[in-house]
Amino acid sequence: MKRVQLPLFWKFSIAIAATVLLFGSLNLLFIRNQVYKTFENQIEKHGISIAKGIAERAVEPILYDDLSALSRLVTQTKSVNTDVRYIFITDNNNQIIAHTFQEYVPRFIMDVNKISPEQEIGVQILKDPRDKSWVVRDIASPILSHQIGVVRVGMCEREFQNEIRGIAKLFLSMVMMFLLLGIVAAFMLSYIITSPVKAISTYASQVDFNTFSHEKANRIPLENKLSVRLKNLFDLTDEIDVLSTTFNEMLSRLQNAYRELKSTQESLSQTEKMASVGTLTAGLAHEINNPLAGIRNCIRRIEDKPDNLKQNKEYIAMMSEALQKIEKVVDGMLNFSRKQELAFTSAEINQLISNTISLVKYQLEKSEIELELIGFDKTITINASPNHLEQVFLNIMLNSIDAVCEGRENDIYLQGKIIIRISESVNAATIDFTDNGIGVPHDKVAAIFDPFFTYKKIKQGTGLGLAVSYNIISSHNGHITGWNEPTGGFTISITLPKSE
């Protein structure tokens, strides 16, 4: 489908015309509705005030049967209020005892707007069937709570309706005048703006990499005769001049950037590789240090009791397993951004956590942290990759130890404690690691699983431990989350599906 090209003049004209017409229509609606309602409300309030005033002053003349006083009251009131069309008073028998009509009260007025004893005021719009322009707002007010009669006041609406129509006609004339001025302004604006914009459009469509390969790209003048004359006459600058300068400067910057891009294109690939290697190496150091801490613990135990062959064999087996973990951690970190290959088998959560505790036992003793195990009396079997889950548990426990140690720096009397709680439901098992350490700022809790996020001291963490753990738990179709404890400390909760 071919696109229709609309000149700038017509765009300005349509936009200005639409704005003026929309503004005019909204204001006409406002005048018709809001202003008209305001006038109606004011007239009605004024009529009610007049009717009630007559009702109060008419009590004594009616009681003393002073009809001449009543006639003077309604006549004087009508003469003072020019918007009052008529006033008349009826007694309890609906007989007229005073009025302002020249001869008699018309029947079509007498038979309407009859108020019941429960009403305090009655308002009704009356129209003369013989004269369609005759419109009156009839207001009825009881005298002495409906005991001796009713006052009827007719407020004329024709005058203010004519005034509203006059305002609307004047406003329409102004709208048409602004519309005409807007079209003239659109023509002038299009003439001033179109020339430089067309020049920019034409040149920009011709710009490509071949253009920047030249030593000096062409520059274009963006000024028309009218703008030049005005600038010379008044020494003025406007957005068109700024656009001209900015566009030419942009061409120069693009040409320089193109040269720099060509010079760095060959080394860009190698730079990206080195950045990735540096990022993974920093995280790999953190992840390798975790099992190495367990190996150091095993070596220390062997050094303490070198003659205990049975114990030494156990620690050697643990070290061998830790070395295997290091090998797999390296592969896992190198493949951090893509799905890892996991070896799933049947595993007991209790045993996996016990293996992890053996690796961090020395750190717990050295840091004087109490370890409490809850729910270890039940054997819960899951389908998992044992080495990967042990790595997750190890990361969490080391983080808890560090958090307790940092908390102790603020409170030297802090009794460090880590609670590991295992629970189960019908289809899932939950492992909670709770410490009473320093915790995490509330506004940072949502980011603890982001890669390279860490709240530890400088050089104590890279922020990859929990990120890797999150990836491993997700691969197990599980869920991991964390929150601050109300009494202090932090909890990491892991939920894993149970074996079928």
Overall geometry: elongated
The level 1 CATH classification of the domain at 8-168 is Alpha Beta
Just name the CATH architecture of the domain at 8-168: 2-Layer Sandwich
Helix content: 55-70%
- Calculate Rg over CA atoms: 46 Å
Q: Gap between N and C termini, in Å?
A: 60 Å
Sheet of most strands: 5 strands, antiparallel
The helix/strand class is alpha+beta
Give a count of the beta strands, DSSP E runs of length 2 or more: 12
Instruction: Give the CATH superfamily of the domain at 8-168.
Output: PAS domain
Q: Helical region count?
A: 12
Strand order of the largest sheet: 2-1-5-4-3
Strand content: 15-25%
Mean pLDDT, to the nearest integer, reads 76
Could you give the topology of this structure?
Blueprint: H1 8-57, H2 59-63, H3 67-80, E1 84-90, E2 96-99, H4 107-110, E3 122-128, E4 131-143, E5 149-156, H5 158-206, H6 209-212, H7 225-234, H8 239-304, H9 309-334, E6 345-348, H10 349-366, E7 370-374, E8 381-384, H11 386-410, E9 417-424, E10 428-435, H12 465-475, E11 479-484, E12 490-497
Parallel strand pairs: 7-9
Antiparallel strand pairs: 1-2, 1-5, 3-4, 4-5, 6-8, 9-10, 10-12, 11-12
